[in-house]
Design brief:
mainly beta; 3 helices; 6% helix; 60% strand; elongated; 14-stranded antiparallel β-barrel
Length: 429
Amino acid sequence: MYHRKTSRFLSVLTVLLGFAMVANGQATKSPFTSLGIGDVIDNSLAHNQGTAGLGISNGSYWHLNNMNPALLPYNSLTVFSAGFVGINSNLKSNGANEQHNGGNINYLATAFPVKPGKWTTSIGLLPYSNVDYNFSYTSTVTGSTDLVDISEEGTGGYNQFFWSNGYAINKRFFVGVKATYLFSSVEKKFSNTIQDVGNVYTPIVNSRINLSDFVFGAGLAFNQDSIFNSRVQFKAGLTYDFESNVKAQKFESFDRSVNGQPPISSDTLVNNQSGAIVLPSAIGAGISFNRGLKWMVGLDVKMQQWSAYQNFEGENNDLDDSYKVTLGGEFTPDPSSVTSYLSRVTYKLGASYENTPYVVNNNNTLNQVKDIGINFGWSLPVGRYSSFDMAFRFGKRGSVDKTLIEENYYKVYLGITFNDQWFIKRKYD
């Protein structure tokens, strides 16, 4: 039996590694992904998204605790979690509208107790950032009246494979550490074509930045089983991501095309030059109150010092410090009901406000992009310990009057969570 359980764990690990070959962030176009390293995707899973991504303090027994590694000891059973996200966005600017749809596998992760209730370890794969944009505009050639059509494109994103460990010092205090391996690449293309000429000559600059390095984080958690002599529990959590100089390689080429045909020549400008990008530190804090499995309310705040970010060339890309505030809660009418399935469903609601790192220059005025949204969802129990999780988010990012572009979007999150007892050696056959 022990060997069979070990084989099942190795199978899960193989699936994760296979997923690493095809994962590529959340596939949706957005002009904001042209800034910095693109859309940075948080670590919240589908069950967190029902409460707008809440999860720094509110440890769960039945769902994988991925927001704060210190909460992993709550997972006293082996847990496997997978998720999907679908996105629809509508982009507005002065006199123009665009609609985009996308979706992708969002995460695969598993955790198992090394010592149940004391030490739990977890591995998984998630997207770290997403880049997907395409700009087309017309400008004037310097020193003449000729018009030139300019195109800028970006695709790809960075992925993360992580290993987390959480340890319960006692019934009140928990600590956790997380090592994350960042990998994959972002590709960008810039081209321009002069209008109204006989043979349309188009120079194209292609660039690719590969990342391949480790970053590290840590977490703390506190639990008080009863406050004010009641059955209400108080929980608090703290996370910290360390600033990192991430190893990178740059490739750049210059192509020439005529009349839209394949390039007639290509020159390598930079051939896998080694360098680094600087990812800034981040700190998160959260508090929550709950009464067993009946209800929970919580508040999370996370800040990241994006003003310290540096790209491969050592530039900041005009990013600024960001913060996000999340408020959410959940309610289960009767977790132990045997007569009503709906009474065992967990209903969730949350909202968030984010001051993103993206800064837009509008008529010599710098405006930071805001992201505001509301989430709701539910966890449907399956069997004794598992669940099917659904969440929806409606949000708005930016505004036409301040940041030139407004993005109205909705997202659908689907997740499955399986809990089981693995690595238990039976005393009797």
